[in-house]
Amino acid sequence: MAPITSLLTAENKKITGNALQGALVDLIDLALIGKQAHWNLTGRFFRPIHLQLDDIVKLARKKADSVAERAVAIGVNPDGRASTIVHDSQLSHMDAGPIEDGKVIAVMTDILESIIRRMRERIDATERADPVSQDLLIGLTRDLEMHHWMIQAQR
Amino acid sequence: MAPITSLLTAENKKITGNALQGALVDLIDLALIGKQAHWNLTGRFFRPIHLQLDDIVKLARKKADSVAERAVAIGVNPDGRASTIVHDSQLSHMDAGPIEDGKVIAVMTDILESIIRRMRERIDATERADPVSQDLLIGLTRDLEMHHWMIQAQR
Amino acid sequence: MAPITSLLTAENKKITGNALQGALVDLIDLALIGKQAHWNLTGRFFRPIHLQLDDIVKLARKKADSVAERAVAIGVNPDGRASTIVHDSQLSHMDAGPIEDGKVIAVMTDILESIIRRMRERIDATERADPVSQDLLIGLTRDLEMHHWMIQAQR
Amino acid sequence: MAPITSLLTAENKKITGNALQGALVDLIDLALIGKQAHWNLTGRFFRPIHLQLDDIVKLARKKADSVAERAVAIGVNPDGRASTIVHDSQLSHMDAGPIEDGKVIAVMTDILESIIRRMRERIDATERADPVSQDLLIGLTRDLEMHHWMIQAQR
Amino acid sequence: MAPITSLLTAENKKITGNALQGALVDLIDLALIGKQAHWNLTGRFFRPIHLQLDDIVKLARKKADSVAERAVAIGVNPDGRASTIVHDSQLSHMDAGPIEDGKVIAVMTDILESIIRRMRERIDATERADPVSQDLLIGLTRDLEMHHWMIQAQR
Amino acid sequence: MAPITSLLTAENKKITGNALQGALVDLIDLALIGKQAHWNLTGRFFRPIHLQLDDIVKLARKKADSVAERAVAIGVNPDGRASTIVHDSQLSHMDAGPIEDGKVIAVMTDILESIIRRMRERIDATERADPVSQDLLIGLTRDLEMHHWMIQAQR
Amino acid sequence: MAPITSLLTAENKKITGNALQGALVDLIDLALIGKQAHWNLTGRFFRPIHLQLDDIVKLARKKADSVAERAVAIGVNPDGRASTIVHDSQLSHMDAGPIEDGKVIAVMTDILESIIRRMRERIDATERADPVSQDLLIGLTRDLEMHHWMIQAQR
Amino acid sequence: MAPITSLLTAENKKITGNALQGALVDLIDLALIGKQAHWNLTGRFFRPIHLQLDDIVKLARKKADSVAERAVAIGVNPDGRASTIVHDSQLSHMDAGPIEDGKVIAVMTDILESIIRRMRERIDATERADPVSQDLLIGLTRDLEMHHWMIQAQR
Amino acid sequence: MAPITSLLTAENKKITGNALQGALVDLIDLALIGKQAHWNLTGRFFRPIHLQLDDIVKLARKKADSVAERAVAIGVNPDGRASTIVHDSQLSHMDAGPIEDGKVIAVMTDILESIIRRMRERIDATERADPVSQDLLIGLTRDLEMHHWMIQAQR
Amino acid sequence: MAPITSLLTAENKKITGNALQGALVDLIDLALIGKQAHWNLTGRFFRPIHLQLDDIVKLARKKADSVAERAVAIGVNPDGRASTIVHDSQLSHMDAGPIEDGKVIAVMTDILESIIRRMRERIDATERADPVSQDLLIGLTRDLEMHHWMIQAQR
Amino acid sequence: MAPITSLLTAENKKITGNALQGALVDLIDLALIGKQAHWNLTGRFFRPIHLQLDDIVKLARKKADSVAERAVAIGVNPDGRASTIVHDSQLSHMDAGPIEDGKVIAVMTDILESIIRRMRERIDATERADPVSQDLLIGLTRDLEMHHWMIQAQR
Amino acid sequence: MAPITSLLTAENKKITGNALQGALVDLIDLALIGKQAHWNLTGRFFRPIHLQLDDIVKLARKKADSVAERAVAIGVNPDGRASTIVHDSQLSHMDAGPIEDGKVIAVMTDILESIIRRMRERIDATERADPVSQDLLIGLTRDLEMHHWMIQAQR
Question: Model ipTM?
Fold first, then answer.
């Protein structure tokens, strides 16, 4: 079984692979937490937030797929298993059970901010290493920042 | 924050809630593993299996959503967080890194069979407790069994 | 004009016919009340509830059609005339004139709960009498219970 | 809860409100009777009439919505509850049970003619009071007259 | 070539396999006879019946596919070859050549009734053996009974 | 460059041209202000109002196009330049910077009311001058009044 | 064969019937001439005019259908036979054979102007006789005037 | 204005041009008569025939366009003006006013048969002269014959 | 019940009728066998062949319908009953039970070749008898030959 | 009312905010001027330019929305009010009244060139300050330059 | 690797293969030249010709695919490589660089005429050899001749 | 005929023009070779590779269009004529005749790799010269690399 080859140097491949794997973990956990809140939400703002969370989950799943396929395209195997997410994710903890609308706004604002901060570091890290991957990270960061604003506007 | 009420007895609600929560864990992990294989797959059968795995992931995500919304509708809060999946899932382990097509067929056959076995136990358990939830479990089991056949036909 | 025949025994046909006719009355009145609230709603939550009520009306109309066509398919003539609805419906009364958003949430929660209670009795009643009709009732009860949760989550 | 305001004078608002409320009752009852006939129809002309009745019901529902939303837009609360329909509707009575195709044609011809007669009176009444509402009534009367012709052509 | 396995016991697999194979034969022959009548139909009611028959054929083909795929999914090979249809089908005979509209109504009423009778026996037979297959049979029986009513209403 | 000719008298053309040009200014400014609020909105009701404002902008743009093309069709050149909007528009002022949801509801209620008042004057003015243009103004006024109600219901 | 009845007085029915029959002749001839020019056109402006003529033909056919169905709906039989068009049409003559683009613009400008002039007379004539038919004529006149402007702008 | 040239000999161009011009006259008159019957139809079969006639008109219009564009493509100017149709058409006469369904079936059967007879002569005539045009005529004849059968089956 | 008439001579009608009936038998049996293989297929190439067979079945059903409707259009009643297929079909036998992918490729290659051979004989036979039917046979033969190549390329 | 926060430094936020606000003014004014020309255009090239201008307006509106939402996402309130456009826009002046096609080509070429020049300066300015915003500006500049070429090719 | 077989004789296969390969070369070069002109076009007629050329390219690509797949279906390998196009194509030369609209019309008229001439020779050549391929060539020649007329009409 | 102007310096225009012209040659040749393999492919993997190649061709054609239009937008005339492709392309040679699936995988892997290498050089070259063109090259390189991976995974 021959490994997938790419034109990146070993150094650049490692830097880019780390950035993409980190982004993958963030995005999969964002999708899982987004669904958790989508289901367990309560409060008068149920309907608009219920719908908004699904938009975020949809974005996270789509971008996770692009990021993982980009990783394998440069010869790095992505890892999106549940155990990896639990081990590596840095997102805020969310308790089980019902969760009120105001609490969801606060938690999601924090989570999105922390993901965006790491994404911006990955954009810097990949600028020299692989501008093609960087372009992908820039695009998804713009989308995440738009959702960050829309969630934040409701505090 | 008043709890969501339902017309089920406490006993039936507990039985049905357990069945739905178990199904949710199976389906979320199936989606994560399916994507893991979708990305890291290699071999001559790459393309058809790559596509087939996405069909399975799509099914698992859709049914996970129905199962979780059914749980909350009967007053039980579903739990689909990564840590819960890692703790409760009984699916076979899949190693990180590239994975050959023949291996994927074997692993997915096992995984689907073990999920189907548990789903059939849940169908029995909910027959008296809540026929409405049972109907949902029957429907998704039919879909899982169809994929089990299609994967198995390739051994 | 020969009557429509079916393969059900007279006894089973009567039991099933009653269940379907009762479901039809519930669903038509639900659609009428849903529209009444959709039009006369006021309050800051106007837009999300306005849209949600239309989802419920759409469901009620579609299922009323399925239930009525099922009745005639087993040889029982359904009755969905306004006078029959007024005479037989057991839904809560709703006053004319403007109605505030909080009030709508409370009334719709009650109405959906009372419909679901009767639907579950009909599911039991038709289990032996006609599993085909029972299957239809199970499916629509699942949809009603999902809306019950979503409305209730806003109390 | 502040009432919805409009720019119409009290007198014009009353005239227009009456016209719209009357139209709403006619249209909702037309939809209920159309469905009743759609389900209980028999005879060799079953299929074309079965389909035609659904076209009429679809029109009646859509226009009832426009009429009711127009009423609330000028500050008059529409009333489409079942009891109001039974109390105020002037449409011909239709017996329960199976109904032959020829009978349906006759009854629907009468019903449409009586609705159209009242709609034309409402068009006259609103000409000065509110040309915007009149324009809506003119449009739906054209559609009703088209169906009147098509039903009538089958006598 | 390893056989497709399933989790059903040998006994339940045999019962369910027989029910599905019987349903398959009924549905394929229904589609062939429906097309035969669709083409050779004559009489004043040509157009509505010509269209209605195509609706029935479309249903029969779609459900035959679901039934056959369900059979193979439980490890039973479906048999839909022409010789099997001829040997096993119990549907009424239809002569070659032109066939008048009144005759088509009579023949199709008989054929649908006999299929429905056997489908209800299969629903009973599979209740214990395989509720997943039973659910599929219940759903298609509801559709067949709806067409039985619509055809019968034209006698 | 020959001017576009029309069949209206000079007097009627002037009256109608003024009405259409006035409507154009109102609609373009409504679209600009609607977008301004759509972007700078804050508060818990962010999402439903954000979406509702886009519905209003979409309507205003579409009708502005119809009004302007109607003007040129009768030989009057419409003027929709920014400087003309600033000079002629009578809509309420909206400050730059963030704007809370309650404020948006209040401002949009006022703006829509003032536009509707002028549109009704234009309907009167064009009744004799050009019933074709009047019909266009009647239709768009109905749409504006519907939005006026929906915004106002949230006070 | 009972005649189609309507609620118009004999006098109003005659006035309206004449207006609609006249409009029908104009629209059918417009469609035939538009196609004639569409096919035989030559010159550098071939493509844009070729497409624009088809827009006009499409409009004329659609409106002819509405006008004719309106006529029969009020109890007047429309007449759209070729011989009637030849006998009654007042449109400019168009020679057989190839026709240059500049000529098409000139002829179509004249034809549209003459149709619009007659349509405006019909709008006046039907104002009292039947406002429902008038509304239909006003709408199609607006569309014709839009095309008149667009064609005229190319002189 | 240079004439459109083609590669056909003068003789073949004349034969083919005649065939296409004849087909054009037949198809335009078929569309006009089909609409005339579509509007003035009466009787119990109103709805299915009303729809069927529109299918025929749609076919005739589409094929007339293909035939005319084919003519000009070989350098022959098609002529579809009303006066040409009246002068050259050989279709049966249809009286003005209401027309019963049985009569429509009879007339349309005759008309389609006569058109088909001439189309088959044109197929023979163009076999040597221009097989490209012949192919177009064969295709439209198949469609006309299908409609001929469907209309004829209703006698 | 008058027979459907056509303009073909008795001799040509017989030749063409035989060709079309033969084609109908081939196409219906192809659809049945294609589905049989679609369901009972096994092997690593399961998925692409499973999909490819459905393309073939879809083609066969669509063309069978065109062929049968063409037959009745020329006055010959098509016969597509199961017993006729068994009696007249010349396609290779396919055993019941599971069938490996390589075997399916071999069998389908043979079956398509034998159908194509007969279709080409029918093209010759109908050249004089009825070029309209011949054109239909030429078109479907091209599609069959394309599938023959695609299947054959996998040997 | 808490301001929207972002991760940019105050300096970078100011630079990026200025670039986005400047782009917003350019795009809104481009849309207003494009519509002005779309309506008041005259000349032989009316139709192709009329359509092309609408493509440009559509682009400008869509990108204005993206730019404004990007601004608020980084904590800068966009300002798209008419008075701001008049005050800040640097686009060429366009006179009121009819405008010939050649003039439109010249003016639009100038306007697009001046916008593109400023957009390129903004691309440079944001390269360090915020690559995410820069990416948005690059994409819209490519679209503007494509239209600049297409307009310019017609000089 | 077994060659693809077909039922054509060696002689007919050679004749047909040559015709199809020749058509393939013509169509691919037409698509390349069409795009070249589409991109480098200048002049006041830029927009309509720019769009028209894309219609031609779209046709050429679609038909090239049909022709090549037809070749391989009869056992002849098509050759569409760039070197083959350069070696075998007989189309007129087109210079690099900008090309004025009048020049494009002239060149495309020549190119289409020369392709049509060869296509007609191929239609003759395949009449006996393979009527199925001939039918394909006839169809695409009709489309090419339509474009030839439309381009030529602009000289 | 005035040249298309742009805001790039002569030096930057030359660098960017060379990069875009080189990309155009690569993409057109990729499309031609992809189609050649699509048609002449043999082997058991026929169907999935046949479809995959069409995805690549579709991408190459779409991006070639974007690249060429970008070139002309900056004032450089693109050259996509067959002779230019033959002269300038550096892609691997592909023999005429049938080509086995394994061979296609190998050749396409090489071709995609060589194109990607050159694209990355072009990305570097345009970074200073024209970031707008660079952005286009980055996007298409990402798509090419995704296909490179998918093809390569099948070795």
Answer: 0.95
- In total, chain B counts a number of residues equal to 155
Residue from G121, G138, G140, G155 to probe the interface with F (highest F Cβ count within 10 Å): G138
Question: Which of I73, I78, I66 shows the shortest CA–CA distance to I6?
Answer: I73
Query: Residue D7 in contact with residue F152, Cβ under 8 Å?
Result: no
Q: Which amino acid is at G72?
A: V
Instruction: Tell the residue number behind the tokens 């399933």, with chain if given.
Output: E6
Chain K positions in Cβ-Cβ contact with residue J153 (cut-off 8 Å): 41-43, 46
Which residue of I6, I7, I135 is in closest CB contact with H138?
I135
Query: Which residues partner with K42 through β-bridges?
Result: K100
CA distance G126 to G119: 11
Q: Is J100 helix (H, G, I), strand (E, B) or coil?
A: strand
How many CB atoms lie under 10 A from the CB of residue A94?
Answer: 18
Residues comprising chain G, all counted: 155
Measured distance between the N- and C-terminal CA atoms of chain K, rounded to whole angstroms: 52
Q: Calculate the average pLDDT of chain I.
A: 94
Exposed, middle or buried, D64 (CB in 10 Å: 0-12/13-18/19+)? buried
pLDDT band for D155, please (50, 70, 90 cuts).
Answer: confident
Nearest CA in chain I to K3: I153
In total, the C-beta contacts within 8 angstroms joining chain J to chain L are 35
**Is residue D101 a contact partner of residue D42, using CB atoms and an 8 Å limit?**
yes
Which of J4, J28, J81 is the best residue to mutate to test the F interface, defined by the most F CB atoms within 10 Å of its own CB? J81
User: Quick one: which of D56, D64, D57, D75 has its CA closest to D24?
Assistant: D64
What pLDDT, in 10s, does the model give residues G49-58?
999 999 999 9
Under DSSP, the state recorded for F3 is P
Distance separating alpha carbons of residues D133 and D8, to the nearest angstrom = 11
Q: Neighbours of K (≥3 Cβ pairs closer than 8 A)?
A: G, H, I, J, L
Q: What are phi and psi of H91, to 5 degrees?
A: -70, 155
- Between the alpha carbon of residue F86 and those of residues F65, J84, J86, J93, L133, the distances in Å are 19, 9, 8, 15, 38
DSSP labels for J11-72? HHHHHHHHHHHHHHHHHHHHHHHHHHHHHHEESTTHHHHHHHHHHHHHHHHHHHHHHHHHHH
SS3 assignment, position B144: helix
**What pTM, to 2 d.p., does this model score?**
0.93
Angle, CA D46 vertex, CA D41 and CA D50 arms, to 5°: 70
| L102/A24 Cα distance (integer angstroms) | 33
* Contact (CB<8Å) E150/D47: yes
Q: Which of H42, H44, H50 sits opposite D45 (nearest CB)?
A: H44
Cα radius of gyration (chain D): 16
Q: Which H, E and C letters describe A89-120, residue by residue?
A: CCCCCCCCCCEEHHHHHHHHHHHHHHHHHHHH
Query: What would the pLDDT profile of B43-80 be if each residue is shown by its tens digit?
Result: 888 999 999 999 999 999 999 999 999 999 999 999 99
Distance (Å) of CA E138 to CA C63, C131, C140, E120, G68? 17, 7, 15, 8, 49
Reported as type and span, the H/E element at residue H99 is strand H99-100
- Residues of chain B in contact with residue C149, where contact means CB-CB under 8 angstroms, are 4, 69, 72-73
* DSSP letter, residue G154: T
Q: How confident is the model at residue C155 (pLDDT cuts 50, 70, 90)?
A: confident
What is the rounded CA–CA span in Å between residue F18 and residue F79? 11
pLDDT reading at C69 higher than 60:
yes
Q: How many CA atoms lie within 13 A of F12 on its CB side?
A: 14
Interface test with L, best of B39, B40, B47, B99 (most L CBs within 10 A): B47
Convert the pLDDT of each residue in J39-71 to its tens digit. 999 999 999 999 999 999 999 999 999 999 999
